[in-house]
Predict the 3D structure of the following.
Amino acid sequence: MRIRLTVNGERRAGDAWGGESLLSFLRERLDLPGSKNACEQGECGSCSVLLDGVLVCSCLVLAAQADGHEVVTVEGLGGADGLHPVQEAFVAAGAVQCGFCTPGLVVATAALLERSPSPTDDEIREALSGNLCRCTGYAKIFDAVRMAAE
Amino acid sequence: MSQLVERRLARGQIGESVRREDAVPKVTGEFAYASDLSASGMLWGDTVRSPHAHARIRSVHVAAALALPGVHAVLLHEDVPGRKTYGLEFPDQPVLASDRARYHGEAVAVVAAEEPEQARRAAAAVAVEYEPLDAIDDPERATEMPPLHPDRPTMGHGFRDDPRPNVVRHIVIRHGDPETRGDVCVEGVYELGSQDQAFLGPESGLAVPDGEGGVDVYVATQWLHVDRDQVAPCLGLAPEQVRIHLGGVGGAFGGREDLSMQIHGAMLALHTGRPVKMVYDREESFVGHVHRHPAKIWLEHRATREGRLVCVRARILIDGGAYASSSAAVISNAASFAAGPYRVDHALIDGTAVYTNNPPCGAMRGFGAVQTCFAAEAQMDRLAAELGIDPVELRLRNALGPGDTLPTGQVLTGSLPTAEVIRRAAAIPVPDPEPLPREPIRLPGGAGNTTRGEGVRRGVGFAVGFKNICFSEGFDDSCAARVILRADGGAEVHCAAAEVGQGVAGVILQVARTELGTDDIVLGSHTTASVGSAGSSSASRMTWMAAGAVRDACRAALAERDRRGGADVDVERVHRHPPTTPLDPETGQVTGERAHVALAVAAMRVVVEVDVDLGLSRVVWIGTVQDVGRAVNPAAVEGQIEGGIAQGLGLALMEEILTHEGRILNASFTDYLIPTALDMPPVAIELIEDPEPDAPYGVKGVGEPPTVVSTAAIAAALRDATGLPLYRVPVRPEHIALR
C-alpha cells in the first residue's frame, strides 16, 4: 500500500506491506536509519519518534497508521543550522558510548523537556525509564538531560 | 624546546576528558551501525534454527522454501565450502548443523531473499525433520551422561587430562598444604544464573562478494582478525580473500567474540553473487549468542581467630552449554580468582567447565571473576560474622598486594593497591536514610509498590573484586598499529582495535596526539585490509594494547622521519605485553614468572532498601573506588564504571536466562529485564592512579572490575537488609518475601 506522510517537515511517500511497522518503513523505505531496531516489542525505546508531537515507539506503530500524519525522527530534531540542545548536551556530558540507544533517548528527552522544561530527577528517571541503555548506567544521560534543561 | 611547546598545544592528550569523535554522528542518527548498512542489489539473509535443545536431524527439505517469491538461496551443512566447523578457541561448532542439533537456536540452514519478510518466510518454510533427544540440562550430571562431543575437541591443549565425558576443561590449583586447618571454618554453596550481554544493537552485518571469489564482510564484532581466521577456512578461501571490516557496533560486552552471521552471510553472498545483509531480531540475538556461564560454587574458608586467612578450598562448576567457546578461559579465571584479592598460603581450587545442551556460554564482561567474586565475598562476610570482626577490617587484614603470592604461585610484581582501594571505599560517606512516607517512585519496586513503606529495611554492603588485565596463560597477546606521517605534518593512524562503544578510538587518538604533538590526525577505518591484528576488545586489554601499539608506531615513525629527513613515512609496529606462561596442568601452579600479566582491583559500598513484605529491592546508592593504573580519559573511565555497575546490578537483582530442558524461556526484553533509568542509583566514584609498571603510560583496563565487584556488593547489602543468607543471584522477590 502507498503511505504518504510528513517526515521531518518534508512530504514523503513510499510503499509498505500491510504488517510493516513505521520503524521498518522509516529505515528501509525512506532511508532514515537513525531510529534503531533493538527489540521490536516497545520495550527498549531505541526506535522512539514523535508522531504528531507525541512520543511513540515506531516499532509498535504500523506504517499504515502514520499515513497522513507528521513524524519527527532523530534526523529531523536539529535544525539545518546544527544540533538540537538535547543533542549538544548528550555530546557534552559524555552520555554516548555505543550510541545505539542514543537516538531514542535524544527524542525522548526532547519530548520530556517540551512538556516539562525543568524536570526533577524523579521526573527524568520516570520519563526515560522506557529507554534502555546497556553501556552508560544512565548517570551521564541524567547529566545530559539536566544540562539541556538549563 | 619548540617540539615541547607544540606537544603541549596538541589538545586531547592522555589524561584529558576528551569528547568522543563519534558522539555527534551518534546523536544525530548519522552513525552507521552494521544494521544500517546497505549495498546495491542487496539480498536479505535469515537463519533456520533448531527449536530443540538436543535433536537428531532426520532430513531437511528446501524445495518449498526455494519456490517462494524472491528467494535466491537455501544453504545447508553440505553447502559449507570449506571446513565444516568453527570456534573461537576450539573448532567444535558446525557452521550449519548436519545430523544433530545440540542447543536451542543452533543454526541448521540459511536463506537469502529480496526482502527481509521474504527471507523470514523462506526460513519458516524450510522443512526440518527432527527427532528430539533427551537434553543434558543438569550440569552437575553432565559428566555422567553420553558425550556431546565424543572426539573431545579440547583435549591436547595442555589442560589437565580428565577422562569424564562432557568436560570442556578441568583445572586444579593446589597451593601449600590444602589440609591446613585454622581456628574457624565457614562453608557455603553459591549459585549464579546465566546472564545475557543484552547489547542494544543486535547481531548484524553485510557480506559483499568481490567478484574474484573473495568477500568483504562488514560486521559488528570484537576482534576482526580472529573472525577472518575462522571465516576463511570455512569458506575454503585464503585469509587475504576474506576482509573483515568493522560495522558500527551497538555494544558487545563479550557477546560478539564468537561469530554470528559472518560465515553465513559470506556463504550466501558467494553463492548468489550478490551482497547479503543479515540482522538478528532480539529473540534470535538471545538464542544466537553465548551468555555468561551459570555457576555453582562450593567454598570453605579457614582462618585464625585473629582473622588471618589460612586455607581456601573451592569447587567450581560452570555450564558451558553445547560448544566450547571461551569456557576454558572462563573456568581458569574463575579458579584463579576464587580466593579473592587476599593472601592465603594454602588452597585447593577445583574448577570444571562442562558441555550440556543448555545455551552456549562464553565471554561476558568480567568472565569467571564475576562468579567467584560473588561467592568469595559472601564467604568473607560470613567469616567476619563468625569471628566478630568488622567485614572491612577483615578484608584489610588479608589484603593482597605487591610481593604477595597468588594461589597459582605467581608472585605479584606489578601494581595492586588492594588495601588502599578498600580503605578509601570504606571512607566514602554513606547518605542518610530518606524518611518515610515518600514519593512511591523512590520506594523498592517504585510506583508498583502498594504500601507506604512499612516493610522497608535498609542494608549496607561492601565487597572487593579483582581481575586479570589482558590475556593470560601464555597466550601470545599482541596488537598492531600503523602510523603514516605526511610531509605536510598530518598523520594517519591505523589500528584494527574494535570500537564497541568503550571508546578505544578515542584512546588511539589521545595516544597519537600525545606522541606526535599534533592534532592533525586521521584515524583509519578498522579493518583487516590495512593493518595487522589488534587482538580482541575484551579482557580489559584493548586500552593497554592499543596504547602500546600506537605509542610504539608513533615513536618509530618519528624516528624514521628524522632518519629520512622529513619525507612521508609509513610504519607498522606490533606491541606485546610481557609474556605469560601456562599453569601446570596437574598442580595449577605457574610454570614461569606469571600466568597473568597484571591485575586490577575495585571496592564498592552499596546501600539498598528492601521491602521485606513484598520482596522488592532498590539500590539506593553506590560508592566505589577503582584501581585504574592511569585514567587515559577520566570521563570515559567513569562511564565504564557506571555502565559496568549497571550490568552487575542486573545480575544481582533481575537478569537471568531461564531455561526448561535446555530451551530458553525468556528471549525478549519483555521477559528478560535489564536495569532501566529507575533502577540505577547515583554512583560516587574515586579513581586510584597507581601506574602499572609494565603497561604503556601505566594504564590498566577499566571495563571489567566494576562488573566483577558490584554483584557481590549488592548481594551483601541485601543480606544486611534482610538477614537472609541469599546464596543465589539474581535475588528475586520470592527469595525474600515468599519463602
Residues 132 and 172 of chain B are 36 Å apart (CA to CA). DSSP finds 16 helices and 28 strands in chain B. Chain B touches chain A through 62 residues (CB under 8 Å).
